[in-house]
Amino acid sequence: MAIVTMPGTIALDYSIAANVLGDQAGYRVLVCGEPAASAGVQIVPSHDLAAIAEADTVVVPGFEDPHIPPPDHYLDAIARSFDRGATTIGICTGTFALAASGITNRRQVTAHWQYTAQLQELYPDTKVLENVLFVEDGHLLTSAGAGAGIDLCLHLIRSDFGVDAELAAGKSFVAAPARPGAHPQYVDALTPPRSDLAETRYWAMENLSLPITVDQLARRSAMARRTFIRRFREETGMAPMRWLTLQRVLLARRLLEKSDWSIDRIADQSGMGTGANFRALFRKETGSSPSEYRRLHRS
């Protein structure tokens, strides 16, 4: 894995990748490029830019003045790495560098909400998604800044090493498990200072094998259906059934990694019905079949 440093690299975005990914035992992280300074912090690479040619993952942190493309030798190195199949990641304004290299054409990306309009204007052939935490389009992954960068790094760890590795990494940095990429970067209404529905969510997580409905959750919360849905969105950033689906998939991932249960038994335990329904939903959410996921992530 290579983290690219170039003129104007933002220290915060660099440090997120260097610390979250650099602490993961399964990665060997190289810092490649040229020295950079940001907010009084000096970033000194361990290798020159040519070293990214051997990396299976290339991470480009955000950089200052993203409307000005990085030097051509950086863009060429990024494009060559992507073309040979390296997973290529842009954090915050790092997405601008990926776009300038030409690899985002007709692909979906995101960036910090303050920059998405500018990104779309500069690179009209790129499909810029607004107000999402991160986007995965094949082996191209991009995120908003700061906390969303952590989410993307945890998502990568989960994809490469499984749910337990992600949870351990998050615990190390006092971070919750990665929020879904489609989770909004911001909400227009303030989240309530208390979490009135925490008990309801805990009950749902303990009973995922049951056919849980929104009406049932609303009754347990002593709320009208519409009020419950609104409050649930305020507290979690997503609809109740979307949240429930993600919890079912998370449980299924852990069972695939840690148990020898059959696909049908895992489908039943996680509340996803038949084995066929489970396979379809699991592939939709993770990009792989349950059997493929199990082969890749068994301890």
TrEMBL record:
SMART domains: HTH_ARAC. Pfam families: DJ-1_PfpI, HTH_18. GO terms for molecular function: DNA-binding transcription factor activity; sequence-specific DNA binding. Residues 198-296 form the HTH araC/xylS-type domain. The keyword Transcription regulation applies. Gene3D superfamilies: 3.40.50.880, Homeodomain-like. PROSITE patterns: HTH_ARAC_FAMILY_1, HTH_ARAC_FAMILY_2. InterPro entries: Class_I_gatase-like, DJ-1/PfpI, Homeodomain-like_sf, HTH_AraC, HTH_AraC-typ_CS, INH-QAR. The keyword Transcription regulation applies. Keywords: DNA-binding, Transcription, Transcription regulation. PANTHER family: ARAC-FAMILY TRANSCRIPTIONAL REGULATOR, HTH-TYPE TRANSCRIPTIONAL REGULATOR RV1931C. This is Helix-turn-helix domain-containing protein. It comes from Jiangella rhizosphaerae.
